[in-house]
């Protein structure tokens, strides 16, 4: 079967039937974007919960994180797939189980799963900000939510952006779990191709397309890491501060 | 009583089992400059932090200008009355010096950006750092950072400024520049409470010096009194160590 990998005719056929691959590629991209949005919002909220003084909120965050980090993503997705329609039926009072699109299952699946990891990233980011920052904010009269919004969270960006992009990268790869429930994503369509033609080229093309999404993210992580170590340069304020000395650092 | 700015009544503070402040009573007049001295662990920082509600009193009251500080009103009171200068400066490192000074006036006091900038630049001029307005805190020396922190406290124009060991984290050669700024600031009619060991600063500006040990105010008087004629043996001992 491996000989087939070097068969020019098979490559030709594969490359001329890329339609479903691209469909899957864009579907995967959509699931990624939606999943990322869910995980960022939920992860930030849970991350903030875990650093508040409220024991209840801390406990909520902890239980969530431990549950989602310590159970496999495929099991979670199977559960949404099987139980989701019945849960919705019960909630909405519908006469029969409510069909859920694979897009929704995928977005919610990876969204909830990565929210747990992102929550941990946000928590460590917040904990990296010295306590004196909150005290300075409080002593100026900022409320805690204001202090988080104006002072604490902006300071965490440098620290959390690289691991956050790493999570985005893992999230892209994890959308492939949708193939298990006939999701119409890149992996599912590639697998379809392979089982129809028996050509392993299909998997290689899937790898190439995943790589196209992930590699720029990996480069972004590296760039952000380098950037986070740089010292900030003074801003020039016309009429007050001296003009910035250009090329000083070069 | 209109002349009373801060009144502390029967203040007790526990950290777990540790009794840090023991039934402290204190009245500070409007515009008074008070210096608090004492060995570390004596409760002086906790006392000043209670005045800003960064520590919640276990029992007793802190009354600012006639209004007792409570869990509910302390932010509003902090906006209106007091700001704090910290040992570790606590400037916001992700903002320029100018932004550090204008954030609270713009967001909390609803000043226009132009007005806040004008006030901020005037404050920076006073501490001699107008040129550094566009700089980020980490590119400044410790002394410069603390002067910026003092300018930040000035910008919100509250009548009380609390200093919690403002020169303790500084290299010796930078202490004077910060003290100079504080002495200059003391000419204003603001109420200053300062935890410090700088007795020369106390001599120059303090109306009153308090000596604290073991969670209590053991002796109080003018700076001259402390230089010439301290009574309490622990206070004498302490002054001998820091003045010698």
Could you characterize the architecture of this molecule?
By secondary structure, chain A is an all-alpha fold. Chain A has a domain of 159 residues: MetI-like fold (Orthogonal Bundle). Chain A has 9 helices and no strands. In chain A, helix 7 packs antiparallel against helix 9. The C terminus of chain A is likely disordered. Chain B has 244 residues and is of the alpha/beta class. In chain B, 38% of the residues lie in helices and 26% in strands. Chain B has 9 helices and 10 strands. In chain B, the strands form 2 sheets. Chain B has a 6-stranded mixed sheet, sandwiched between helices. Chain B has a 4-stranded antiparallel sheet with strand order 2-1-4-5, with helices on one face. In chain B, a hairpin with a 2-residue loop joins strand 9 and strand 10. Chain B starts with a strand and ends with a helix. Classes of the chains: A mainly alpha (250), B alpha/beta (244). Chains A and B meet through helix 6 and helix 7 of A and helix 2, strand 6 and helix 3 of B.
Q: How is the secondary structure organized here?
A:
The complex is a heterodimer of chains A (250) and B (244).
Chain A: H1 8-16, H2 19-49, H3 55-69, H4 73-92, H5 102-127, H6 131-140, H7 144-174, H8 186-197, H9 201-228
Chain B: E1 4-15, E2 18-29, E3 33-37, H1 44-51, E4 59-64, E5 67-68, H2 74-80, E6 82-85, H3 97-107, H4 113-126, H5 142-155, E7 160-164, H6 172-185, E8 191-195, H7 199-205, E9 208-213, E10 216-221, H8 223-228, H9 233-243
Parallel strand pairs in B: 3-8, 3-9, 6-7, 7-8
Antiparallel strand pairs in B: 1-2, 1-4, 4-5, 9-10
